[in-house]
Records
---
Amino acid sequence: MSGFAPEWLAVREPVDARSRAAALVDSLRERLAVHETLEVVDLGSGTGANLRYLAPRLGGRQDWQLVDDDPRVLAAAESVTREWAHSHGARFIATADGFSVAGKSFQCRAHLAALNLASELDELQLPVSGLVTASALLDLVSEPWLRRVAAHCRDIGATVLFALTYDGRMRFEPAHAGDENIRTLVNRHQRTDKGFGPALGPAATATAQTIFTEFGYRVGRERSDWRLGRDDRQLCAALLDGWLEAAVAMDAGARSELSQWHGRRSAMLDTSGSQVLVGHEDLLAWRPDSRHPIPPRPAPSTDSREDLP
Ligand SMILES: C[S@@+](CC[C@H](N)C(=O)[O-])C[C@H]1O[C@@H](n2cnc3c(N)ncnc32)[C@H](O)[C@@H]1O
């Protein structure tokens, strides 16, 4: 499994879902402005796991933009969500630019948008008084990028939910020599550029709290740790491979020692009682006045518009 391949996203989705901070979603529901249709933008949506988690929990009418720059994951969003809808008793319809899905308590349209959020951020249309969200993205981005997004969110009165941001904690049970070295190297790799400038890595949620607070938001944070055991073997094996690769990229001279650590840890995956904790956090940021929608901006003057019928 490489990068953010749909196969990797599929392996992590059930673990993400059971790890997320449900209390923050309850809180989010209370804080969202009252709309006939809630508009949502999902940054770095992958195949749409965030929609599949949030849509039934938020309920009502929703209109989502799933934004990602990887055509593989956007192409998989429809089939993965179709299967999910069928297994959850929801109705699924493919549309020209995405799909719509309706369950007992929610109806939601999703538009797939291929956009590079690092280089084409200005082209992103964010919803006035809507929800801006991302899952498993924030540790990849840089502080200046996050500031730009936060300023934009403030200007349009958006509520913000960033879920499943890695926070630098990694604990193994039973502990083993070499664990701490791997954690240090992986966390160093986390700070390298992932396309947005130097990545925030484990500092991402704390930095987001500082920025959104500066911009007048209230902020809530909850842990959403992965707690992995024998039943999560496939995810653990993929993690060990990824951590080895990241650690070697930071210290190529230690390749042999790091590979030995990887071999020992892989052998332990089937041992009963062997556990791995990967620290994550969810963050909710809301405007104190968020339940009162900002009225839409007036349309620009029509004088220079040539595309009107
Ligand atoms: C860890 S995955 C999370 C995907 C999804 N949110 C989930 O929870 O399953 C990060 C996602 O961010 C996307 N991504 C990374 N850099 C991006 C960029 N510059 N522009 C748009 N999407 C990007 C990747 O393609 C990937 O789908």
---
Amino acid sequence: MSFEQSLPKSLSPSRLADFKACPRRYQHASIERISQPATYATAKGRFAHYIFEHLFLLPNEERTAQKARELVDPAIEAILTDSVRNEIAMDLAMLDRMVDETRDIITKYFEMEDPREVNAEGVELRLGVNVDDTPLFGILDRLDRDQEGNLIIVDYKTGGMPNRNYDAQTFANTELYAALCREKLGETPTKIRLLYVAHGESIERNVTDVVVKARASNAVDAWQRIKRYYEEGDFPATPSTNTCRFCAYKDLCRANGVPVPSG
Ligand code: SF4
């Protein structure tokens, strides 16, 4: 079999995560471009990200909790489009729930940091680079400059906290962003901060050259495999309870004879 669709022009950290979880998922999402319907969680994530993005586009002194709350209505307009509402079967009760949870996120966020004091050098920063013939592209939530002059990658998380023994996977995407910064900006961030805004907690990790190089090299290897599978016309499915549980392609895989675990 060969694909009618062209190979994507670049590889992003989230698509790399798809590929590593299950190459067939990457095939459906990135080669065949079969859309993944929104869920309540993804819609809420985009909703909150819209508010933080637009809050940080304001001058420092205007980044108040009141301003953040005033961004809720524009976020409803911009993010909760008719197609999104249809996909998640949103009724008034669900809309109220999302707005209430977002207001709670805003309150918890302002207990974590004062955005008026944050020196954000980049907001929704788009970075594209070529590393060893691998086109990498990513959009950073925020890139801060701290008081010591270091760059800090900040990523908002609207889902649950990882468990206490969170592993390297928790930082995998953002460490690849650090590689993008190194290549594009000529400066490697020294730290990554993941802001779990629904919980008012953050976790941090220092960035080391060894890890940044390893993430870049891992992405280069994955891109080689993606090109090979693309030429062969088939990306292998690697079903498991964990990888399939929240995958949008369960029905498609089952129809194609993939033994997707139930649940
Ligand atoms: S349902 Fe499972 S096997 Fe199929 S694409 Fe998703 S993760 Fe892969």
